[in-house]
Predict the structure.
Amino acid sequence: MSRPPLPNGLAALAALAVLVIAGVGHVGSPDVYFRGAAGPYDVGVVIRPPGVVPGQLDVVVQVSNEPAAQVTVQPVLWETGADGAPPPDLAAPVPGEAGAFATRLWLMTSGSYSIRVVVSGTRGTGTVDVPVVSAATRELPMSPALGALLLALGAFLVFGLLSIIGAGAREATLDPGVPVDAPRRRRARVAVCSAAAIFALALLGGNAWWNHSARAYRRIIYKPLASRVSLADSGRVLQFVITDSRWRQHEETPLVRDHGKLVHFFLIRAPGMDAFAHLHPVTSDSNDFRVALPPLPAGTYHTYADIVHRSGYAETLVDTLVIGGQGSPAFSPTDSDDSWIVSGALTAASDTRRATLADGSIMSWDRGDTSLVANVIAPLHFTVTAPDTRPAVLQPYMGMSAHAMIARDDGSVFVHLHPMGTIAMAAQSIFSRGGDSTRDAPLPMPMTSATLPDTVSFPYAFPKAGHYRIWVQVRRAGRVLTGSFDARVR
Amino acid sequence: MKPHRRASGEGTIGVPWYLSAALLASLCVIVGVMWDISWHSTIGRDTFWTPAHMAIYAGGLIAGLSCGWLVLATTFGGAASRGDTVRFWRVFHAPLGAWVCIWGTFAMLTSAPFDNWWHNAYGLDVQILSPPHTVLALGIAAIQLGALLMTLALQNRAGAAATQRYRVLYAAAAGLLFLNATIMTTEYHRRVLMHTPQFYVVACLVFPFYLVTLARASRLRWPTTSIAAVYTVVMLAMVWLLPLFPATPRLGPIYQTVTHMVPPDFPLLLLAPAFVLDLIFQRAPDTLRGWRLAALLGAVFFAVFFAAQWSFGSFYNSPASENWVFASTNYYYALPKTSYAYRHIFPPVRPAKLAGGLALAAGLAVLSSRLGLACGDWLRRVKR
């Protein structure tokens, strides 16, 4: 088997290292979108984390099927549970938006939280937990305008204080009406100069203090667990190793299975995103995860490993991997749910609405003429039609009617979502059980029915403008099918 | 700026309106700060409009507006009113204290956008001292210092004829300023730190300077004791009054059951060294001055404060103090139950480190006293 040249060589690797931005739970997509049931009420929840800790997050709850009289939200930290949570906050109705309620909540520490939503109305009370990870993820630069304002105010304060010191040294100890003589003026000038020197030192000290505070803050900015992705066994096996000392020293809670898997591992070939794989490595020691590598084309791949901790803390570990050739012809998947697809490359003009699946079915993106706008809920509705043009009968795929992966062409955004949204189902189960979780007890799959309707939807808003590729995965007749779509987001 | 003659009390001197305003501002800001600390310990969540914040803003506004008006009235009110003021930027006239108060108001205003940005950039800072909080604290301290300087100018101009009213007002102004110094160093003198070196290092660095400075400028017979008494009385009022108001946490995680406003720690036993310092001021011969006097003051402050506070710490960290009088169960809502404070355990300190820290504290007390003497002697001469 010949080895094709690398798409972009080492320069691409370096670029990827810069472009791939690690995120909590997902990459470059911090907002949480959830759709589900709070008892008898259908709710959609959007949570915008603050990016700083302590900080305030915005919560919007949309109750769609029944009129809701009251909606409360409460931040529940995994470590303390509901007993250590503050009292729920009443969300206020959003003017002009029927059924929408909004409020802001304080998250005071880093860690795994659930936003507990309680809806009350004519049909009683319903509760649902929406997991959210609290982490410092950004440092806010100071705007030039604010910087100028503070500089001006600071200069005014320093100048004013020097003037006060000068006036005090010159006149404060004089008897009323006594004029200021030359020696006093001299002394005042000396006092001002001395004070200026002291202030200069104080300002330097203040600057050092500020820098120290900024450094201390940077230390608490979220860093994903260190990990390494490589090929083993002559390129037939993909090896994913968590190398982080925090993990090795058991400072982190163990992993739990999400949709029955400890790791959901994704490969996306760069830059065209024309090859994609969704794998499930297995491990015997919680550090070293391995999975048989499907026959993917050679190239440089972004890799994303989705994991969920026992605390409900979900994170995505990112890396890059160079694959040198077509894998082994005798490939046998490690997990029956492993899947991959090779399709055309994303181009600037790409904007697809229809995908032909591997079994001849057609997956259509039902978005009409709706354009896609950043930070506005996108119409991610898909319909699968069987080859005989009848509505396809779908089956649960890892407990869900569908999975969708969305990636931006520069690798700066990657999200793995389901019809219930961006949350990790395992994390939600942990919170709904009062924080109890064990690694080996499989968390319940929400969907067990054998047949599902032919349409699937995902609640999500693209985080920024750009070119995206969307992979939608369903199961039909026991086979995992992947549809690939391209989108331009304004 | 002549003291006002009181119509109803011939021979007594009334209090000028601007001084009343400045002292009220000084009281407002410091009560607001103590209330705010209790608010954050109890309820946690705040807004721009909390009562504690209102008290702080009111203090800043009262000081800024009253002193601003005083500047206008003095500058444009005719030459006769400028004799006991200092000139500022060649145009404006007002007592030195008024300028300091105005500066304090501007510093408080400056801290607002700075603090807001800080919260957005680095998250809400839950400690007392951060760079923007320090700007606010400097503003608050300036307002209190301004009130003190205005009181001082009136007292010193009256000389030997200074009425008891000015002496008492000065003690109040000085006590409030000293209270500010103790609050700003709260994080270094909590209950569980009373057997650690940093407790004594910080106390000996800060408190002798304030006490000696303020006492030196006073005309009272027991100035240091009076100032420490103001501190003690206000603190005791907070310790005993705050828990009377029901309140519960509005932020999590909540590790402690809190049902009422959390009071501060029982006041430090500063009355003991203050009383001894006053004895020294009263009895030291005139030949004892400068570094020699500072050495005596510093050494005595350290020895008495250490003896009083160390032994009190043993009691204060014991179950015997877990009552409303001493309020040693004043746990804030997020205090972990694994903490030293909750378990009433002193953190371990190596004997060598303790000895080194105590020696440093003694030396700092001397240095702090010497600075206090220099500043106090200057303050004693302030007349404008």
